[in-house]
């Protein structure tokens, strides 16, 4: 049996950042994960994740992203590596950017907060970003303070830092059950037969969280989103500054993506919609099907004419941990002392990685933090308001 102040279950971006911050606050911390870290099926493990402050009218996230962005730049310095590439993002719409729309509200909030934004019309879109079909995408803006993070690599360097700092990492340990003393959670038993005792168990298992804490099934679901990599025939046309991070009227199409990846030489396209609902992360096959590919191809044909002949070189179905209102879930369990949950990334969590440690550690310690209000333990009746603004909510 091993004993710690805190056992973190899961080493994605939530778990590893929390472990680092809790250790820095003086706790003895262990992290368990089936491994290897970064885990190939984890949501955090990917070549890129979009980083941007655009959240429609929901200014809370924009404020949090302003802090997180500065820390992304600090991480680049600290790790002497470009973990975050600030190439900017184009937020474009099919037709005029209308008040009340995701792009319009994001523009208003970010502009008011002093972000350097450049409004674009069809002529400018055609001239500056020639891969776009500017007959269809006629309005929008460019934001400089955005880009992408090499997310799998981020988890990797943070886990190396955790090891160097004296945090005990246990890849190869899969939590099987929580150990209790009455209502109080006092540890975890693993599938591999190890027992970890702790004052606090922090469940940060993303899409797998409800398997260990079944009551979470009422408030979160694992939904699978297709991801596609295309190899452009003319790579220069898809590289910055001609092509940067992008959202293609995303709240109405679901599609967003990235410029040419500097190492992989691919354009990654993601889908932020309903996806394949209610999957079991342990049992269900994660395949991108023909209907997904047809939808991507139709989108590409009308959006990026020069990508029409690009071969698809990789596909992946990646599971969101979606809460019912698409806001994160970071709180102490209301009825089980000793248990804290940090999950519910809902397809937009990675960008907040640099501030998650602080947020989650505050939740563990029960410290007042205005940011946590949105992510508290809640029921659908007391939902925290509008859903995540960039999501395509299919009828
Ligand atoms: C397709 C896709 C695209 C996305 N795009 C973006 C984006 O562009 N920008 C953005 O900000 N966010 C994006 N997200 C969301 C972001 O990736 C997630 O919010 C974030 O990575 C979730 O991190 P996590 O630590 O909660 O979960 P994960 O990264 O999934 O980590 C969970 C960890 O738990 C471990 N685990 C599982 N079972 C057990 C067990 N029994 N015992 C111990 N450990 C266990 C796993 O091995 C894993 O390491 C995207 C997500 C997906 C799926």
Q: What attributes does this structure have?
A:
395 residues; alpha+beta; FAD/NAD(P)-binding domain; D-Amino Acid Oxidase, Chain A, domain 2; 2 domains; 8-stranded mixed β-sheet; 19 strands; globular; binds flavin-adenine dinucleotide
CATH superfamily grouping of the largest domain = FAD/NAD(P)-binding domain
Strand % is: 25-35%
CATH architecture verdict of the largest domain: 3-Layer(bba) Sandwich
- Helix and strand succession? EHEEHEEHEHEEHEEEEHEEHEEHEEEH
* CATH-assigned fold name of the largest domain: FAD/NAD(P)-binding domain
Name the bound molecules.
flavin-adenine dinucleotide
Structural class: alpha+beta
Rough outline: globular
Query: How many strands, which pairing sense, and closed or not: the largest β-sheet?
Result: 8 strands, mixed
How helical, in percent, are the residues?
25-40%
The tally of structural domains comes to 2
**Mean pLDDT, nearest integer?**
97
